[in-house]
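User: Quick sanity check before I run a bigger batch. Here is a single chain. Can you write out its predicted 3D structure?
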Amino acid sequence: MNWPAPGNDPMYSYNVVDNTSRRSYYNVNAIPQLQMDGILTLEPNYTNAQLVNAFNSRTSVLSPITIIVRQNNIGTDSLQVLVTVFCETAISSPSVTLQVAVMERLITYASAPGTNGERNFNTVMRKMIPSGTGIALDLTPGVKKEYEFRIKKDALWVPAQIQAIAFVQASNKEVLNSSWKLSDYCMLPNSAFKVVNAGVSQNASYKIAVPYVAAGYNSPVTFTASVIGSPAGVSVSFPSGNVLSSFPDSVALNVNSSASVPAGIYQVLVTGTSGTGVTHKVVVNYNVGKSFITVNTNKSSLLFRVDGNSYTASQLFTWDINSNHSISAITPQVFSTTRYVFQNWSNGSTDTAQTVNINTNVSSYVANFKTQYKVTANTNPGGLAVTIPTGNQYWDENSTVPLSISPLQVPYNGKTYYFQRWLGGGANSYNGTSPTANITLTNAVNQIAIYDTVDVGISNIGTEIPEKYNLYQNYPNPFNPTTNIKFDVPTASFTSLKVYDINGREVAELINQNLSAGRYEYSFNAAFLSSGIYYFKLVSGEYNQIKKMILLK
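Assistant: Done. Predicted structure follows.
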């Protein structure tokens, strides 16, 4: 920590962000303090007996999850950390956090950095991966998560002392299990639970694997199994033997129950023992007449209902076989500029609400939603009588949305305003002078159409004063979607240039202002018009002229 004085702890200073994150998480405001498994606090003057008692109280608790940590050097300067998390049995609150850290098992200083003379420091956290906030995940029986992390080694670290660790914490900070680099062998079942009917003789088969072993490990593993609580009528066996001598490999585990076994969740504890006496344990569930049912949504924090109760996080239920339960998805759900729209349930139903009958085959119901983002569209100045057809609506994520606006010139407060450009906000928004564009939505965007009283479409070409009025044929013609219209004004006069469709209806007012004498060119963008024959008309002073042009798209 950066306290007590003089506040020069080199291990804290090395990684202030991660150290502060974990200190704040546990609300540590005085030292020494010991936090054990996140829920036991010993401070500040605990005895060795208190420490041992606290440790023993936690080691006697059977963990609901398995964590496997492997680490490999990548070249000489990088480290690969592989973490497997498997949920064996039910957790009261499935929403948990995975924490991964790189620690240095021993740091020795030539002289004590503090005031108490201590030079040796064990299991020092060097870096949290990817950060001190960890990785949020939902764990229900049978869920398996695989993670890979790659980090650069610091030259300050002693390579032989570097060890990766991982632990899972519940919302109340309880550490549900922890693990560091695999040093011998590990165990992993192929299934966390099997569901059978009550009232009849039943059986279920599992595979218990040793998927990974540490480099150099070559001891056989012998498996034993027992049903926790030793209930009558439930038995276990290894039909093909209970010893593994080569890896990776697995043994078959059979669980049998008689017709008299009452409905319930029966936990089978499987123990592996190496030739040198190293033991590891896993649990599988034998569900008689009951099933673990997970209900959630494919997007986090969305609202759904189960039997009339509302939830916003994954829920695990233990329901009787053949019982009926109601589940419903709420749609749409709007969070500012993001909207979620229900698509279907994982069992294929497209009804937002359904009643499900619990059986031995289905253990999960997921409400699938699609994500939509809003295209917010406005004008500057506000209040212009224009139309932005795709604006202020929600569109599917990754869809291509055509952006357009019309008219490009509009009267407002006694003046004529001309479209100038789009000003975009957000990734993939459009910034440019074209009135039409396509935007691909990976997030919400904001589009502002900028109008001004200055018509940027018109430009004065040269300094020569023409002798007479003239309207030239547009070029190119036919065109798509832009063409240039040139005209001459020999004396200063009020000038208008308008475009009409084949029926004589005005479709665009290009110029409506006083012009000085000169030669002019107007760049006309007809992106908002459909293909066809159009006429453009110049009126300046006493001069009046019309020409035809063809728009081909």
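The mean pLDDT is 93.

User: Great, the batch can go ahead then.
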